[in-house]
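Contributing new records

If you add data, match the layout below exactly. Sequence lines come first and carry their own label; structure lines follow with theirs. Keep one chain per record. Anything else will be rejected by the validation script.
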Amino acid sequence: MTGAARRACLGSGLEEPAGVGRKWEYAIRINFRQGRGRIRGTLRGHHSQLRCPEASPMCSVPMVSSRLQHLLTTTADAAAQASGCVQRTRNFSGATLCQTLVFGWLSHPTATLDHLCQMAAASGVRISPQGLAKRFTPAAATMLKQVLEAAVEQVLSTDPVALPLLQRFNGVYLQDCTTITLPSALASIWSGCGTGDGHTAALKAGVRIDLAAGTLHGPVLAAGRTDDRTVAAALPGLPPRSLRIADLGFFSLTDLAAQETAGCYWLTRIQTGTALFDDTGRRRELATLLEHQVTGLTECVVDVGVNERLTCRLIAVPVPDAVATQRRRRMRERAHRLGKTVTADRLRLAAFMVFITNAPAELLTPTEALVLGRARWQIELLFKGWKSVGQVDQWRSQQPYRILCEVYAKLIGVVIQHWLLLTAGWDDPHHSLVKASAAVRDAAFTLALPLQTGCRKNIRRADPGTYQLLEHPDLTYDLPSTA
């Protein structure tokens, strides 16, 4: 447990439990089925069971073991009965079917029916590939969706990363959505936007993750055509003194005002066309203001909005000419695909990196704000891992409900994977979650996770990584190097 977390909890009258901060080694023993299918493994790390008031449960190996067992047995069986997926137990129960699909695709994202049958056999169920193929029904998809929703409700966290910049806030939350394009036959379930490629079905997953404690909110699911802000409304509220970082898809002065009223801080880019007023009350054009006043890293106090007038800090820095040129090229290419024209203001603003925040200067310096703004890409890397490694948006079949079952099962898998990562290294900023995730997948069935060693990040001197910068915000590097 970090010193800051210990002081916060001791100040509330809680006693520090024995063994906090000590090394631990526990064996995971999860009986997925009475009498057979026992999964055993060993997990090593630092153990903490201290829970602060009003906080998410602190993640420990016994807790993950208990919740995983309940999710993939009791919850899965109840969902199977409610959906009609399993009406009488012969080979598969709801639990064994869910375990077969979740662990099968977690272990091998491109698993064939033969691979899944082998996973079923390891759980004590003998079935042919043809028999398994018949299990991919609308009822099975409903069952897996219910299990996913139950998993999302289990919000866990670990000891915060011991970085002073993150510990100033009651959580530093990154928020975003990702879209999974589905076959058009599923448009009645998850309607898309009807892109130029003719895809009329898509699923949008909204996620929020705390950089400090690893708390994962979501994925909450919505139709692909749903606005990002509407999806985010289904996520839990943020605690006071937390900091939210999100992209322009979530930009709303009304939402920012509500968060400020709730005692939360925010850091965001500013939407083109947003009304901006200087300290004299004079309305200013953002591009003109930046061109006339910003020659290096600059901050000033401004008011944004007309009806919702918010006072905040504007932090800006010019980007290299090569980066500005690349941004403008991408803007024009995207506008061309959509049959639109890029406005002159957007092209001018491409020469700057701009953020606004309501966090006071004593909590967040301009350099630190740029570092945290850069850290928003960590959630993009999370989605990249889900898609490029977990392959939640790829499948081998053309059968719609088999595809839907596969998407739900893989999303359950990434939630379980995140739980396991919290127990074994999240609080170490030098721990590579990419390498640790690979270790989880390699040992998905046995749950023997060698995560505490062998998964270290490589220190980058020329181009420091995000956690290197969060640990040392003043480390010299080219701040606007990312387009």
